[in-house]
Amino acid sequence: MAFIPHTRADVEAMLRTIGVARLEDLFDEIPAGLKIKGLDRIPEALNEMQVGRLMSERARCDGGLTSFLGAGAYEHHIPSAVWAITTRGEFYSAYTPYQAEASQGTLQMIYEFQTMIARLTGMDVSNASMYDGASATAEAALMAVRANRRSRAARILVPSTLHPHYRRVALNTTHNQGLRFEEIPYVRESGTLDPAALESLAGEDVTALVIQQPNFFGRLEDVDALTDWAHARGALVIAVVNPMSLALFKPPGRWGTKGVDIAVGEGQPLGVPLSGGGPYFGFMTARMEHVRQMPGRIVGRTLDSAGKGGFTLTLQAREQHIRRAKATSNICTNQGLLMTAATIYLSLMGAEGLKRTAAASHARTRELVALLTRIPGVRAAFQGPFFHECVLQLSRPAAGVLRSLAARGIAGGLDLAPYYPELGSAILTCATETKTTADLERYALALGDALNAAQAA
Amino acid sequence: MALTERVIYEYSAPGRGAADQWPAPTGEAELSDLPAALRRAEAPQLPEVSELDVVRHFTRLSQLNFSIDTHFYPLGSCTMKYNPKACNQYAMLPEFLARHPLAPESHGQGFLACMYELQEMLKEVTGMQGVALSPMAGAHGEFAGVAMIRAYHRARGDDARNEIIVPEAAHGTNPATATMCGCVVREIPVDTQGDVDLDALRAAVGPQTAGIMLTNPSTLGVFERHIEAVARIVHDAGGLLYYDGANLNAILGKVRPGDMGFDVIHMNLHKTFSTPHGGGGPGAGAVGVGERLLPFLPVPLAAKEGERYRWVSEAERPQSIGRLSAFMGNAGVLLRAYIYMRLLGREGMQKVGEFATLNANYLLQRLKDAGFDAAYPRRRASHEFIVTLRRQARELNVTAMDFAKRLLDYGFHAPTTYFPLLVPECLLIEPTETETREVLDAFVAALSQIQKEAEQEPGRVTSAPHTMPVRRLDDVRAARQLDLTWKPTAPS
User: Fold this and answer.
1) pLDDT at residue A10 greater than cutoff 80
2) Separation in Å, CA of A272 to nearest CA in chain B
3) Measured between CB atoms, which of B106, B279, B483 is closest to A336?
4) Structural domain of residue A329, as residue ranges?
């Protein structure tokens, strides 16, 4: 199936019009020695029925887990309307809205998205999405270097409690442009950023401070004090936030006395399925004074030649197709379809539905942590409050425990050993509103058995 | 079809909502552990609307769009071909959607098998030695490619190579990517027939050359005939060749970048392998490399050992340019590309390039016969070609933009306009292989009709579109009086 509609008569007529005898003649400008005969290692075509069967078999291999994994991707209920509309061909198979008059649907949707994300984060402006939370964090660091004209250091302070993958992506994306990332350690007892370590940097040229809230461990940082600390030293503040948490928590636009300068995050919790890691979308918001330093697309409302309101891509002078080597970023494609899903999701949930989802997820996780820490050999790694995610320390090596849980159909959490070896045997575990009390009890039972079996072995 | 749709906030009524979708309320007592100082004081301003309000609003918005499913969309350099429904349906099987990216490999064998086979198939169609799937868009793949080129030179102690050569017709992402990788951009001209100016290239290369970024067929819609000479010149100077895969559709099954001498390539899976464009994304920008760059591929990579599949970790790839996405790139897009390739198979894949090229050359010939000027009349079209309306602009004061806007009234999405920049008043037209001859003929008829209008009543064309939801928009006002978020109008 190649979805090619040509009849034999079409091909003959078309070749005649062009004035060549054979299809092959259309490739006469390609050096003959370069042409290939065939693609031997590509399998024979399957028809749709065969593909359907193959994919269903493959999918079946991947099912059957009740997941308590979070760590930057969260399972929430997604109303059917979200993807029923998102996959309509008019959204699904449209291109970037360069021809504004023929793309008002996508453009208005983006304007509504920008509004919702700006309100949720308490910031002035939002762009039309980045690839994911990690790449948005990397772009925020680059943007901070452009926006903070008082700093010459291109030096970004990053807490070691920022998602470890985000830290890697930020470094890998920016090191060729000379950005330096310095990791601020966390306090072992609390799992939050160490203020003493930060204080030792006072008086030095810092371009920006990154604050993740809740942090990778699910712990809550003292965001007001940190924001004011950075601003008092001429540094910008980049917030990395879970949008779901913002239904309950103070938005970055209100942190400290001035609010943060740039807020980014992973948009996946807003109506995007886990889907093996993507496609998700990153969001990016900023104070109005920095809007011209933002990467990516931005939609504005304007008037048409008859004085009627309409929507268009704006501030394009920042972008690669105009500025080329001097653009704010090389980004071109965004995550349009995922942004569509999020806009529909936020419309359905509203402030109340979002708050209920966040609160239910948190209550479920507290219930889970209470159940699990009753098991001998399980304790919370840090003291103090968390949001819908918690680090647990186990008396046995986490990898083996997680394997026995998986054998019983439970993804118990993320083994932190590769990321934070100093924590010993520790897992990051999460529950959301999708989990029932029976799910939590099944997990507790299985974990108790796994630890006991390990003990006996 | 209604031509106007209110902003969703304007449907709000305090206290309304799609409440059946919400979980039951949680008592404040269960949130008592959260410090009051960190709590949100005021609820975020989000719409308060019913589920049916939402469904109608976004359905109506969708109807204001042109799309492949509704219109011919010959946007040059974007490969707007049919996105098969099966690719979406089978990538969205519940088990794939529910799988957490950090779930154990034991419960990801189905997905991993697809990724491994996708890597292998992409190696075969491009003639490269290794493929990594995680870059999330074309520009992201470009970034990975140039980062690998830099890492390669650095690993050889050849640190001074920081210049990337880019032909003047290149996509804007090429120079922007070079800058993101900390490189200096050097632009070189093309000759009157659209090929790279070899003398200029010889003059440009040297010990500072990190590499060259090329699209082939180029953005001028013609095959770079001197590609073997280009490869020789750049390699002899110690540089590497980067292939921008934006136009891979033109040569699929006919000739492979690896055989042309390219060291690294990105593929736009959302073009050549027909994953949806989604109103701007998601894309997928898989990268392929030759022998020399294998150690530098980004992670994660899928590997096969016996009958088991697994992820290759960063620790196993010490020279890798590392992780570029939080998890596994645009995994669901990769599944769609995999399904597309399995549906096409060996024979289908070879037909893609042939029929994309047939449609482009047929359309070009028909437009030439109708009196339009090809930018490169003596060249064979690849999968796309350029028409220049310089004559119409000069003689009739009707520009390429006017023609483009008027095409919308005739029910055709406009081709790419004013790109590449070096051809004045240009339309870059890419019909793709999935369009019928009848559609192409209708497009020619529409352009001919617009030409007639331009001669007889040019105002009709210069004030187009007339039938769209809006007339031409004031972009200057949009940029000067920024209105980027909705605000309630003050009650009068």
Assistant:
1) yes
2) 9
3) B279
4) 80-344
